[in-house]
Specification:
Blueprint lengths: L10 E3 L2 H12 L7 E5 L6 H11 L15 E5 L4 E6 L7 H5 L2 H5 L4 E5 L13 E7 L5 E5 L1
Parallel strand pairs: 2-5, 2-6, 4-5
Antiparallel strand pairs: 1-7, 3-4, 6-7
The structure holds adenosine-5'-diphosphate and magnesium ion.
The site of adenosine-5'-diphosphate (ADP) has 19 residues, from helix 1 and helix 2.
Length: 145
């Protein structure tokens, strides 16, 4: 499958604002039913990227925060609903079943998943994978694949 974001990624950003702006660009390529897995360490910029994607869908950036305790936040975007997951606290994939993840994954929204490695066996084959890496204090590299 060709990379969904081939005209935007790979990219290097030099500030949180640039990562958010990159998220804006990514949003144009998303469609209902897409699942985007965001790999990267703490502070890699996953939430900033999600903020940008959500902002481009009409959701105020300030309302987008990591759903660490709730696992998933739902935002009503202007083109499709957005489901923002943070699986950091998931210890067993059974917890994801209890959350009813299938309603989200196989619904008509776009899923954006932080810490996807916690639920790797549940990610569908067509999952879009993005990797965020620290290059320096304020530089981040974002690649698809
Ligand atoms: P994550 O969700 O991956 O843990 P966040 O987006 O919550 O990451 O936080 C990223 C942190 O790194 C923030 O404190 C932000 O200010 C800082 N930062 C520095 N440079 C960048 C950059 N280029 N892109 C994104 N965040 C950056
Ligand atoms: Mg985060």
């Amino acid at each position: 499958m060709p990379n969904v974001f081939a005209d935007v990624l790979p990219a290097t950003t030099a500030s949180p604002e640039e990562t958010t702006a990159l998220g804006h660009q990514l949003a144009a390529h998303l469609h209902p039913g897409d699942i985007v897995a965001l790999y990267g360490d703490l502070g890699a910029g996953k939430t900033h990227l999600v903020k940008g994607i959500c902002a481009a869908c009409g959701i105020p950036e300030a309302s987008v925060t990591s759903p660490t305790f709730t696992i998933v936040n739902e935002y009503p975007g202007d083109r499709f609903p957005l489901y923002h997951f943070d699986a950091y606290r998931i210890e067993r994939v059974e917890e994801f079943f209890e959350l009813g993840y299938e309603e989200y994954f196989f619904g008509d929204g776009v899923c954006l998943i932080e810490w996807p490695e916690r639920v790797e066996p549940l990610l569908p084959e067509e999952t879009i994978r993005l990797r965020l890496e620290h290059l320096g204090a304020t530089e981040r590299r974002i690649v698809e694949g």
